[in-house]
Task: structure prediction
Amino acid sequence: MKSKKLKLYSGARKSAKATAAISDGNGKIRINKTPVEIIEPTDAQERILTPIILAGDLRNKINIDVTVSGGGYMGQADACSIAITKAIEGFTKGSEFKKIVNQYDKHLLSGDPRRKESKKFGGPSARTRKQKSYR
Result:
């Protein structure tokens, strides 16, 4: 039996965490053991497929299995796309793919540090406060 070469890469967005396993293959991409083509909603599916589209012909040479948990569906989609981008960049070991990705969206490799601001006292949310009048 031939052993597969498997590497793991991680990505995170808000509270969603994703781990991508990349290996030689024939173009199968699975998110939590589900083919990426049937992921709903379609805007999350498009976000996940962004690094695959940027990779071009490389898609038919690799298999990617992603495990994702936590957060909402768009946070999970962003975490998956970051993990997939890091996996492809590590698989190719070339700066050409890195240049293409940085021209398209620099957050696909580095992540996005923004988080939800915590609620403070004196109002219903993080920044809104009760209005007061002196007249």
Notes: The beta strands are 7-13, 16-24, 29-31, 34-35, 62-69. The chain has one domain: 7-110.
